[in-house]
Description:
Layout: H1 4-14, E1 21-26, H2 28-31, H3 38-49, E2 55-59, H4 70-76, H5 81-89, H6 106-112, E3 118-119, E4 127-130, H7 134-138, H8 152-158, E5 162-166, H9 175-182, E6 189-197, E7 202-210, H10 217-225, E8 231-235, E9 238-244, H11 245-259, H12 261-270
Parallel strand pairs: 1-2, 1-5
Antiparallel strand pairs: 2-4, 3-4, 5-9, 6-7, 8-9
Helix pairs in contact: 1-3, 3-6, 9-11
Amino acid sequence: MINYVRLCRDFAELGVKPGQVLLLHSSLRSIGHVLDGPGTVVAALRNRLGPDGGTLVVPTGTSANSDTSAHYHAGVANMAPDEVARYRAGMPAYDPATTPSTLMGRISEHVWQLPGAMRSVHPHTSFAAIGPQAKSITDGHARDCLLGELSPLARLYDASALVLLLGVGYDRCTAFHLAEYRYTGTPPRRTYRAVVDDGRGREWCEFVDVDLDAGDFTCLGADFDRTGVVRHGKVGQAEARLFSLTTAVDFAIGWFASHRSAQNDERSLEQ
């Protein structure tokens, strides 16, 4: 049984300190049997960040709210046309106060529902935050900017945030997506759609943005890990990595420039 005291100690040994801004990607199951579940993990982490200066941020994306997501296409793959139509008609408009996240994990789901937590308004790639910098991080998330300059990721970069991968790999490292917008090259773009309510009732919105691709994040992460700037440790039974978001994004910019640029230029010409 993993308890609050054990988690506080493990986070401290890993290097989590008061006053930090921390972006967390996590798997509760990987930590082991935690007494009282995700609430205990979040309470221990917030204890280490401190009550006055620390801010905890989590991804709370809602890919089930979009008909251009892999999650949606998998869900309707075996449906007849009339079943798909009924399914689409029943998809609720995104509401940051009530819409559950999709595949983000129980810890992230717990954070956005905490009293005082704030959540960005993007109908597909929202983030939630709790702490003194929560508002500045989550405000201004533009609809046509999933994870770029007008998203919480850019605000986290400006805030010199840290990233904590808790029981998950670099394939879940959302920070690398910010580098997709910044590296020298021509990232391919695509159309996205989601269900929203902008005061006119439930309706579909459509926008064009960078075609996000995490397919090479594992390889990118392995190279980043070898730079020696990542702190490794255990939290409960989970493997944990703690590192600077700014350093990770800057490294990824250079990595994409040498690994992706030519390939993406060819893809853009084909579109």
